[in-house]
Every structure is written in structure tokens, then in C-alpha cells.
């Protein structure tokens, strides 16, 4: 009992110290909090109330939001904020991950293994399809830290079928390998190889990038919405695209 009380006291003290340091931890998962600490600089402010929202991080006049998944949940917030403020959105892309299995109490580690999953920068389009038009706004920029993470799971029967009913309890940052910043629609043209003959289709892009067809459809959709790509024709049932000159 004494050990439990001491552990609870230490945890409470740690949370209080983080609050004093200016980094709010309430309702934050480990990955979100760790990315905030990774990106933060000494003069930054955290959890700043503005226009009915709390901003993850404020650096001078710039607002920084960290979203680990589900851009739909933050879309309205971003659309409001960019009208009057420069907004920088951080979204992590998982390169590699380790899976940590815990018991139903979350206190005992049952196993740890490296997942066969391998991510790439093109994974950003899985979420970007929800807010592609925002990149056209002069106040909006994005950054994608490429990370290694640890995913904490529990076999509680509540997760999705493809995870065999395992729930994801937490995601923890292990390492930021690199980071990629995008400030305009033109920056996203890096995903269209210069050697690719114009016009091109999703199928020819898929072959050039060695990516699934669905991912290339996401890429061309986003670039069209950004104003970096246009439909210039059709071949059978395939749309043909070309880049738009600045």
C-alpha cells in the first residue's frame, strides 16, 4: 500500500512539474505530448486560449497545432484560425513501430515485438485528403516528422478485427528520424517524378512510384484541390493529369 501511495504521489508531482514548465498534459496521449516537447523552444507558450480554442503551442505570432490522426476533427479549427493567424500543422508519419502488449490493468508488460509495418512520406495523403484546400491559404504550412514509435496494445476484445480485437491504449515516441516541411502547393509536386511523361494517369503514377493505386488517387486528388495539378484529358476510363505552372 505504501508503494502504491508513493507511486501515485510521484506521478502527481511529475504532472505538476510539467504544468509549471508550461506544457499542459491534460487529455494528451504520450505521442502528442512528446512531439510538443520535441518541437518546443524556450520562449514558446503552451495551451493558449484563442477564439474559443486552445492552441497547442504559440511561437511569436505563429500558432502550432499537433495532430497525430483524424484531420477531420481539426479542420474547422484550422479554417477559423488561418483567417487571422499564421498556422503551422505538425503530423507525425510512422516509419517503424514496436508493439507493446500489456495486461487489462495496463500495469504489466506481456510482450514486445517489432511490427512488420513500414511507413513512408506518401502516407500523409491518408489524412491530407480531408484538408487539401487549406495549403492554398498563405497563412497555412505543414510539417511531417518521420518517427519511430511504440504502440501500446491490450487484448481486451474491444479493438478492430484487423488487430484481432486488440485496443490501442497509447502511442509513444521513440525517435524523430527526420522532418519534412511544406509551405505551398508547389512543394507537394515533389511526389510527381520529373521523369514521368506528361500527361499521366493514376496507373502510370502508381507504376513510377511503386505505390498502390488507391494512394496515387489520393495524391492526385489532393494536388488537384491544392491547385498544383489539373485534369487535361481522358484515356478510356482514366483521367490524365498535368502539373500547373506557377
Can you describe this structure?
The chain has 246 residues and is of the alpha/beta class. The chain folds into two domains: 27-183, no CATH class; 186-246, Winged helix-like DNA-binding domain superfamily/Winged helix DNA-binding domain (Arc Repressor Mutant, subunit A, Orthogonal Bundle). Helix content is 25%, strand content 33%. It is built from six helices and ten strands. The strands form two sheets. Strands 1, 2, 3, 4, 5, 6, 7 and 8 form an eight-stranded mixed sheet that branches. The protein has a two-stranded antiparallel ribbon with strand order 9-10. The longest helix has 19 residues, at 2-20. This is DUF8091 domain-containing protein. Residues 30-182 form the DUF8091 domain.
What is the topology?
Elements: H1 2-20, H2 30-39, E1 45-50, E2 53-59, E3 62-66, H3 75-81, E4 87-90, E5 93-102, E6 109-114, H4 125-128, E7 140-154, E8 167-182, H5 202-209, H6 213-226, E9 229-235, E10 238-243
Parallel strand pairs: 3-4, 4-7, 5-7
Antiparallel strand pairs: 1-2, 2-3, 5-6, 7-8, 9-10
Q: How many domains would you count in the coordinates?
A: 2
Q: What is the helix fraction of residues, given as a range?
A: 25-40%
Arithmetic mean pLDDT: 89
N- to C-terminal distance: 68 Å
Number of strands: 10
Broad structural category: alpha/beta
